[in-house]
């Protein structure tokens, strides 16, 4: 056996050998990071799905599964209750009701506010002269949806009900929102000046969206600020690229939200329709103050209701002068 010592590699050959080993180490580390990142991403999504599944509450009339994936316009009723924060825990009336219409082809979204004191006939109720914000606590989300459908003559397939505690946590989860206030005021944690951009955390954004007594426009002014917060919140959420951040946002909704949108629906909306959040229009069903039996109401003239209905139906790509039937609704519009 030849036991003579091997000659060392020439300097250039030794360099290439070390370089190849270094590349293999780097590639191995990258592979481990990719696999680990994939596993973490899967775990985070699984956890987010588990968390979000607790918010799912189907309606008796389930939307067609193609309602979102068909690419046709659709509407979501956003409802907010003043519970879950500030020590309030009872099932309250809907302080916020906003119809969100999304048109994927036009890449637009429209937020139409309905004043909480709007006088309506609550769907299925024998009682006249009722405020629209009573529909949810009296009869549940399906009745609230049908009441709004009949008021403005459009089909609404989805709803999202969130309390103020959930809104506060969700805003914190995305790192706060930036707004340009339409007026100067100081209310609870909100201290803002007109036309001066300000960054709001969850508590200050909640106060910003709740104040109405010091607003010259009253509840209508509050609706403007509510739509500001929602728009900025959606923009911030759409910009989140990290799975961990997205998981944190969904986690903030635990026990604070109820919806008939599934987790898959939510991912689809975020992936396919996220761009519409940059083209958001705002509107309000404007009423006139009235007192009936000692109770304050907002009564929207029929001409105003008709105009809002036409605008909403156009946004949804529906014939303007056709009366729709909620009980014979095809979510795909076919």
From TrEMBL:
Keywords: Membrane, Transmembrane, Transmembrane helix. The keyword Oxidoreductase does not apply. It comes from the Bacteria. The keyword GTP-binding does not apply. Residues 93-235 form the Cell envelope-related transcriptional attenuator domain. The chain crosses the membrane at residues 25-45. InterPro entries: LytR/CpsA/Psr_CW_biosynth, LytR_CpsA_psr. Belongs to the LytR/CpsA/Psr (LCP) family. This is Cell envelope-related transcriptional attenuator.
């Amino acid at each position: 056996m030849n036991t003579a010592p091997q000659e060392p590699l020439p300097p250039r050959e030794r360099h290439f050998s070390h370089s190849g080993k270094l590349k293999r180490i780097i590639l191995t580390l990258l592979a481990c990071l990719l696999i680990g990142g994939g596993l973490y991403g899967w775990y985070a999504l699984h956890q987010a799905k588990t968390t979000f599944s607790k918010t799912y509450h189907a309606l008796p009339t389930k939307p067609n599964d193609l309602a979102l994936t068909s690419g046709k316009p659709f509407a979501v009723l956003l409802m907010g209750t003043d519970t879950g924060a500030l020590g309030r825990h009872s099932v309250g009336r809907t302080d916020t009701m906003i119809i969100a219409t999304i048109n994927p082809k036009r890449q637009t979204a429209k937020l139409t506010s309905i004043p909480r004191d709007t006088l309506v006939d609550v769907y299925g109720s024998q009682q006249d002269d009722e405020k629209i914000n009573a529909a949810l606590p009296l009869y549940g989300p399906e009745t609230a949806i049908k009441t709004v459908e009949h008021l403005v003559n459009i089909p609404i397939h989805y709803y999202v009900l969130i309390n103020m505690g959930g809104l506060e946590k969700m805003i914190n989860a995305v790192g706060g929102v930036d707004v340009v206030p339409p007026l100067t005021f100081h209310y609870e944690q909100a201290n803002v000046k007109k036309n001066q951009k300000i960054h709001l955390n969850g508590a200050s954004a909640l106060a910003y969206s709740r104040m109405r007594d010091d607003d010259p426009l009253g509840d209508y002014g509050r609706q403007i600020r509510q739509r500001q917060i929602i728009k900025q919140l959606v923009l911030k959420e759409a910009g989140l690229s990290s799975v961990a951040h997205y998981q944190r946002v969904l986690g903030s909704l635990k026990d604070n939200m109820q919806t008939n949108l599934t987790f898959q629906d939510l991912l689809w909306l975020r992936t396919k329709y996220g761009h519409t959040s940059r083209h958001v229009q705002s509107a309000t069903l404007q009423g006139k103050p009235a007192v009936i039996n000692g109770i304050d109401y907002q009564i929207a003239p029929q001409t105003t209701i008709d105009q809002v209905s036409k605008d909403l139906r156009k946004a949804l790509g529906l014939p303007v002068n056709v009366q729709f039937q909620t009980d014979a609704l095809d979510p795909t519009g076919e």
